Amino acid sequence: MTRVAFVLAPGVHLLDLAGPAQVFFDDVLGYDLHWVAEHDEVNTAQGLPVRADTTWPTLTADDLVVVPGWRSPSLAATFALGQATLDRIRAHHDSGGMVVSVCAGADALGKAGLLDGRRATTHHDLQDELARRYPKATVVRDVLYVVDGRVATSAGIASGIDLALHLVATRHGPAVAARVARSMVVYARRNGDEHQASAMLRHRSHVDDTVHRVQDLIDTRFSDPLPLTTLAGAAGVSARTVTRLFGRATGLTPLRYQHLLRLERAEHLIRHGATVESAARAVGFEDARMLRRLRAR
User: Fold this and answer.
1) Nearest C-alpha neighbor of 15 from the set 151, 159, 147, 142
2) Which of 197-206, 241-250, 287-296 has the lowest average pLDDT?
3) Residue 190 placed within a domain
4) DSSP H helical ranges for the chain
5) 1: exposed, middle or buried (C-beta count within 10 Å: 0-12, 13-18, 19+)?
6) Which of 183, 215, 246 is the last residue of a domain?
7) What is the pLDDT of residues 105-127, one digit of tens each?
8) Cα-only R_g, the chain
9) pLDDT digit string (tens) for 194-245?
10) CB distance 38 to 87 below 8 Å
11) Is residue 244 included in any domain, yes or no?
């Protein structure tokens, strides 16, 4: 039975831990999950204490070691794993095993010397600091996860689920990973090179309620024709006001925002095997010419 050992640092984020754990917990996979820490009780970032073993299970090269992230406004100020733990992580890799990190967990892999000469990623708030701390690593920015040999790193929080599903697909096949994702009600299995923040989120940092209402409509119906009059009616303002407020809040026209959503969804479909023509139709373009122009930009 394959073992998955989760290494819990003080302040561990619940979703960094629970997301991948839920993937590997699937009954059909038959993984044996273990929780190890330097103390038998660990306080999470969200305040819920969790119990862990202070003794590591016996691991083989087929087993996984996963280091979930912890609350980390700064990697340098929050690291809390001792050298003995780092040595165990390194020893597992040296013996042929795979080591995985979520979010700030990449810092533990760096301290264990596992990022030197490798590509890695982490949460977008920590990428610059990770690059400074480990100059021999190549930090790949704004991606969900990176797998470099037997070292896998993810952006953290929800992307830990994406990485865990990828590892399941690699070990057991994409059909098994798809079934696990479906059982978890995961909307889409995302590839590692997809952006950490979607177009929907990148243009939602403003505080204009009218524009948010317009975006809500575009988000849910981006594949439909949406004339300005329809958007204006939903927001209760004139078409001219929609254009003015939308541009001021997002730097885009409503049509350009809709095209970004279409492009992002089409790219996702293409990465998963769709042709450009079928992806264009699926996102609302009459043919593939507009999609090709948008991709070329």
Assistant:
1) 159
2) 197-206
3) no
4) 14-24, 75-78, 83-94, 105-111, 127-133, 159-172, 174-183, 199-202, 209-220, 228-235, 239-250, 254-271, 276-282, 288-296
5) exposed
6) 183
7) 999 999 999 999 999 999 999 99
8) 22
9) 555 567 767 888 889 999 999 989 988 999 999 999 999 999 999 999 999 9
10) no
11) yes
Same domain, 57 and 115: yes
Domain boundary among 158, 183, 208: 183
Say whether both 99 and 22 belong to one domain.
Answer: yes
First to last CA, the chain: 49
Q: What is the CATH number of the domain that holds 131?
A: 3.40.50.880
What is the bridge-based pairing of β-strands 98-102 and 151-154?
Answer: parallel
Residue linked to tokens 């990449």: 106
Catalytically active residues are 103
Residues in Cβ contact with 78 at an 8 Å cutoff, skipping those fewer than 6 apart: 11, 70, 71, 72, 104
- Residue 284's domain comprises 199-296
Range with lowest mean pLDDT among 155-164, 179-188, 270-279:
179-188
